[in-house]
Design goal:
Elements (H helix, E strand, L loop, with lengths): L2 H13 L10 H14 L3 H20 L6 E4 L2 E4 L4
Helix pairs in contact: 2-3
């Protein structure tokens, strides 16, 4: 096995510390694929980034005077997750 491939395999083993199954409806599965394609990410990366976003959002719920703001051009609005 080439050294670069070995390093890549080792990095993947270190990154993949936990695997779990996610059950999605057909509609949600298609939505996940669309998001991944639009962002140029894998579906797993979309889920990981979503977890990071939810962690930030959780802080807004527990820390006073903390908000997540979405901005498009000059328009700003608080992020609301439902």
């Amino acid at each position: 096995m080439p050294i670069d491939q070995h390093r890549c395999n080792q990095a993947n083993k270190e990154m993949a510390t936990r695997q779990f199954r996610v059950n999605l409806s057909q509609k949600d599965s298609e939505y996940l694929k669309e998001i991944a394609k639009e962002l140029g990410l894998t579906e797993s990366e979309v889920i990981r980034k979503g977890l990071k976003l939810m962690a930030l959002y959780a802080k807004t719920e527990t820390e006073e005077d903390t908000q997540l703001i979405l901005q498009k051009g000059n328009e700003q609005r608080p992020l609301l997750i439902v």
